[in-house]
Every structure is written in structure tokens, then in C-alpha cells.
Amino acid sequence: VNRPAFWGIAGYPISHSLTPRLFSLVGDHLGMRTVQKVFLEARNIDEFKKHLEGLDGDVWLSCTAPLKHSPNDRLGISAPQGVNAINQLMRTGVEWSGTNTDGTGFILACRQIGIEPSGNILRIRGGGSAARAIAAAWATVGGLLIPESGRRQLVSGPWDNAVVGGGEAALGVDLDAKPGGGGSTPLDANIQVSISYGDGAGTGEFAVIMVAAQ
């Protein structure tokens, strides 16, 4: 198994993140205990690059807000169409690569709690990178969407044909909830989940299941 010299998380805030712990569990399982964990608190791409100057070797990072958009422009990485954001970064030598796993993690977490996206409506609030990734993934597997305005509107994208004007939503998610376990705006749906978790979050929480699924 290929292994980096460092792995961890970058962004701000990150103190509540489960990612380094998950990396440790996976590393132990794969016999990669020598990989060093890193927490790179960075409010912008310049702070992020400054942290990297002290890391000699390959790096695997989970990238959270506010850094999800910066790799596209500053590191030359192509983001998934319509999503336009990266949340997983890998530096091999001097070359960077990356992708976005928010949508995949959300779909897998839904299936874990017994909700199959295909044919079901997701009521989704917000229009940021996580919202776009989830909308794209939900539409790809045959789900339908009712966007709700939040701080940002969900823009036009690959999910446009999945948008419906009304109907019973099987699931709702407020993607404008603040990181670290911030509260959600109630939505008209049979079940509402959150992808925001804080200190002390349990393994049965949807947000934790989603992180583990990624």
C-alpha cells in the first residue's frame, strides 16, 4: 500500500474534527502506523502553503472550509463539474491531486440509516460546496431535489433535471448549519439530518457516519 509521510486535516476550525482519528484507525488496520498526523489550521491558502513548507514528503489531507475552493486556482487541481470545490488533497513529490467526497459520503450515510436516494426527494438548504456536492451525488443516483434558500442559493448545475417544485421530502438537510455542531433550521421533511458535528459526537450520528464513509 502506498503511504504518505503525513496525513491529517487542513482548514479552520478543525479542533473538533474526527479525521485524524479516522486516519489512525485506517492506518493501524493497513499497517501504516508510522505516518505522522498533522493539524494544519489555515484560514486561507497562503497560511496553508506556509504550513506545508515544513513537511518534507508526501502528504494526504482532508481539506475543510475555508480552503475547499482555493486548490482549484492555486494548486492547479480540477474540481468535479458543478461542485467546483476539493475536500481531499494529495501531494506526491511536487504534484498535487484531489477530489471531492462530500457527495459520496452523504449517499453512503443515507443508505446506512435506511434511506435509498433513488426516487426520493431531498429538501436541501444552502448553496455552498457541500450543498453542490450532495446535490450532484443525489441526482446522479436517481434522487430528486427541492432546494431551499439559505445564505446562498443552490445554483444551476448537473443536478438541474432532478429539481422538482414540490412533493413529500423523505429527507432534509440544512447545509448552512455552522461547523462544530451548529444548529439546523427545521425543514419540511420526514427525517432531517445534519452533517455538522461537535466535540463528543457519537458514532450513531449522521454527520459522523458521513465522515467515516468518506
UniProtKB/TrEMBL annotation:
Molecular function via GO: NADP binding; shikimate 3-dehydrogenase (NADP+) activity
Cellular component GO terms, alphabetical: cytosol
GO annotation (BP), single: chorismate biosynthetic process
InterPro entries given in the database record: Aminoacid_DH-like_N_sf, Shikimate_DH_fam
Protein name as annotated: Uncharacterized protein
Species assigned in the record: marine metagenome
Origin organism lineage: unclassified sequences, metagenomes, ecological metagenomes
